[in-house]
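Changelog entry: the Protein kinase domain-containing protein record was regenerated in this release. Current contents:
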Amino acid sequence: MGRRLLEELIASCDGKCNPIRSFSAKDLQKATNSYDSGQLICEDLDYKLYKGFLEDRPISVKKYMFLRGTSEYMGSPFTDVVVGSQMSSHKSVLKLIGCCLESEHPILVHEFAGCETLSRFMSHHPDQIQSPPTPSWKSRIKIAVDVANALAYLHTALSKRVIHRDITPAAILMDVNYVAKLIDFSLATAIPDGETDVRERVVGTFRFVAPDCMMTGSYTEKSDVYSFGVVLLKLVAGQSECNTSCSVTGGGLDLVSHFKNSIARDGIEEILDPAIVAEGRWPGKERQLNDFIDLALRCAHESAEERPAMMEVGKELRKIYKYVISPC
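Regenerated structure tokens:
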């Protein structure tokens, strides 16, 4: 398993990847206190991410596991290593430090950059002592800027155009200062040279998969733009949105339709996270919110052709962030 990791990395990167270290299974088990549940940062269908300490510094340890009842992974640990290594130089990506070559299942070692995902931050309840504080409106815009920059880099800066395919709040790790980093590339896929799209089995998270992907299995950069648009909507609405009023069978399109209908009927106040409302008013806030929501809905347009490119999305978000006049 470990040898295959290195072979995949060498074959895919032409020697251009950032060098990564090899760690022993014993050292990683000790670093995580035998993968103690108290060290768990987050988990997905086929991996768990733990906090650990190695050589007197904190690290993040991603331990892959087979899907329950199967002998396969949902995503590819090898893709995670290959793409993650190429993306590690970007400040908004969890840096890959190394991997374990001895274990039955792949184990990856990353920098430590916080103990909460964006999804947990957004599910904050004031009466729950263990919940992290809800990010301010200003922090939410900065989170969006950081993730947009990372996705634009993924789409344009590597040797091939790469599609992430699972942009969700659960794929974004946060520290106490709300600095955002993408943490997983296991479902990523590259568009072949000379092609405009790539056809793959439909994967991803319910409500975040673009409707065109659901129907055709065809992925382009605009597939990630759609998913990112849904993340933007969740940033502005928090956990209150769509809990009871959206169909549970219609996927992301129902979520987006819910926002459009609510705004048309009652204005943006209907869908705003109460925490944003509670911050009060200041010059430029309404403009920010309207521009942010308009951009989110364009990203989550049903038609891929109508969605902006991620470079444009990042540029517009930076403009919105710059006219924060009053601190949030």
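Residues 2-111 form a domain with the Phosphorylase Kinase; domain 1 fold (CATH 3.30.200.20).
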